[in-house]
Each structure stands twice: as structure tokens, then as C-alpha cells.
Amino acid sequence: MATWQGSNGGLLAGIGGVNSNAPSVNDIGNTLQLIRQNNDIERSGANNVGLTALQGLSGIAGVFQQEKQAQRQKEFQQAYANAYASGDRGALRQLATQYPDQIESVRKGMGFIDEDQRNSIGTLAAGARLASSSPEAMQSWLQNNAGELARVGVNPQDVAQMYQQNPRQFGEFVDHLGMNSLGPEKYFDLQDKMQGRQVAMRGQDLDSQTAARNQAITMRGQDIQANLGQQRINLDAETNRINNENKRLDRMLSAETNDLKRQEIQSRIAANNQQLQQKQQALNDGYKDGINTLTTSMFTLNDIVSSPSLKSITGLRGVIPNVPGSQAADTQARLDTFKSQAYLTAVQAMRGMGALSDAEGKKLDQAVGSLQNSQSEESFRRNAGVILNTLNQKRNEAVGKYVQQNGIKRVEAPQASIDYLKQHPELSIDFINRYGYLPSLGQ
């Protein structure tokens, strides 16, 4: 009787070694695994057609849900990138309302230990962004915050090295870190609070400045209440009166034969003419002052809008103090000058010419009040355009009255003269006297 020999396993193994098609020990293990899987599938009901169909539908729904989530994540990432690239703080703030799930997902993914660490890192990021404006400011910030950085597990030396390697990328990094830690709205509010600005950018309160300066500003030493429109009406009436008076004197002169009386009449006519010329000159001087004031204000604003460093004083970069002596700092100084001086004198000039209604004045005030560093470059340009268009319109009206008053004919100026005028706006009146108009200035 044949008995089982343990060596038979060796034989099977040997056969397997010789014939690759023969079963091997591995084949047995694989077969057993397949059997176990089959049993599991059977118990799960996979061979049940109805159950399989339901599971299939559930799987499809899951895929759709995943695709929907992926699409929303993609939309959020694109919206975030666009808003950050444009420097539009308002758009970044709105993301928290539009995509609260995505903001929360990113925040959870950052792996903060607790709320204290999250708030601390967000606060440090806001401070680091403000300090990144200059190496000196960053060095001071690192010294003052070394302990807090260490407390949240950040090496101050690593921060210093990151900043030294690429200050711009460092600024962008802490922006993303801060916004994702605190949310865009709280992050920007915290920056504003750190700078002591909140509502008034850079410590300026435009409304109070406007109210104060409106009481004190005079235009080239003249009383701003002197309305050129009323002066023109008065001049027209005075011109008619003097002309009628001179006609009467001319008739008397023709009939008079006494030389002394003739001289007296001629002196009265000459005095009337001189008086009229003085009034005409006063009106002309008023228009000249108004035109020059508007031109100065327009060129100040146009220089700001045309400056390559505009992007450095608006949007996300606009919340950071600019390095003294830099082009951005110069542009910021021009903006401050425009809002606190040039604009207000322009308003007084327009009111002096009787050319600005209350509604137009409110519209201008709103546009100037919107010239804030926190808005995007696009929004800044849009508001500046509203102001420039209004100033252009009012200046053209003043030029038209001046030209009419002096009987100047319009002649198209050569481009070379226009280009030269742009470089020398102080020659505006000379340009008008020669060509009878001024070219518009704007974007």
C-alpha cells in the first residue's frame, strides 16, 4: 500500500523547476487567496444583481461628488490667485464668505496644534508682512518677536534667512500664511490695527482735513467767494452801461466846440474805457488762476496714475509703508499732496468759477475719498479716471469762457506743441492764447 512520503513535496517542487507550466507552491497559495476573495465577494452580495446595481449607483454618485468638490477647490484656488495677483483686498475678504468650506479645509490642512498657535502664527505673519518693507524694519521686528517666534516653534534665524534670500517671495509667503491662518478679513483688519489706521489710511482723515482746509484755503490770495460767473454777469452789465455812456459822450463831443470842454469829455471816455479794461482784466485773471489751478491738480493726479510704482502703493503692497527715498514713497507723497492740497484748491477754483454743483462736488469727494492704498490698482485707476474726467470738463468750460471773453480763435496745435505743453503745464495760458484751447489730460 502506498503511503504518503514527505519527499513528494520535493518532487512537486522539482517538477515545477523543470516545467514552468506545472503547478508550484506559490500557485497553491495564490489559489487559496482567490478562494478566500471569492467567498468574501459572495458573502458581500456582489453576485446579487440588484445589490450590485445599487452599489454601482452609489459609486457613481460618489465620483460625481468628488468631481464637484474638486471643481469647487479649483474655482477657489483660481479666485484666490486672481485676487492676490490684483492686490484687491476686498476680493480676498469676500473669499471667506464665498468659499468658507475651502478656507476651513486649508486651515485644517495646516495642522495647527490649537487655536492659540493658529492665532499667534497669523498675528506674527501680519507683523512680518509690514516689517518686510525694509531690512531695517525686518531686523527690528525679528528682535522684538524672537521669543514669540520660538514659542510657536519657529526659528528666528530661519525667518531671517528666508527674507534675505528673496524679500518679495517672503512677503507673499507670510501673506498666504496669515490669510490662511486667520482668514483674509481678520488678517487685513489686524494689519490696519497694527498701523493704527483702521478707517483712516496712514493716519489721515480725509473728511476732517477737507472740512478744515475748506475754511482756510485761498486761491492765489484771492477771496474764494468771488464767483467768476457773477463777475462775468456784472461785467456784461457794466460793459453795456459804459458803452451807452460813451455813445452819449461821443454825441456831446461831436457837438462841442470848446476845446477845454472837449478835453474834459475825452478824459471821461478814456476813464470809462480804462475802468472797463480793468474789470475785463480782473475777470481774465480769475479764469487764468482757475485754469492754472485745475491744470496743476490734473497733472499731479496724472503723474500718480502714470507712475510705474502705482502698484507698490495700492492693493496688498499698499498696506506696507514705503522705504523713504524710493519711487514708491515719492508717489505716495504725491498722492497725499493731491488729497490734502491740490484737490481742495481745484474744488475752490471750480466753485470760484461757478462751475461746480453740489451733486458734482459730492461725486468728486466720493471719488477722492476712494483713492485709498488698500484698494486694487484697477479700482484706484477707475476712481482717478472719474476725477480726471471731471477736472478736464470743468477746465474746458473755463477755457471756453476765457477764449470767448478775449475773442481768441481756435487753431489746431501741432503735436510737438502739445507734447511740449505736457512737459511744461505752466505754459497753459500761453497755449490758449495761441491756439484757443487746451488738449485733454488723462489716462
TrEMBL record:
GO molecular function: acyltransferase activity
Coiled coil: 235-282
Highest taxon listed in the record's lineage: Bacteria
UniProt keywords, alphabetically: Acyltransferase, Coiled coil, Transferase
A Pfam family recorded for this sequence: Inj_translocase
Protein name: Acyltransferase
Provenance organism: Escherichia coli
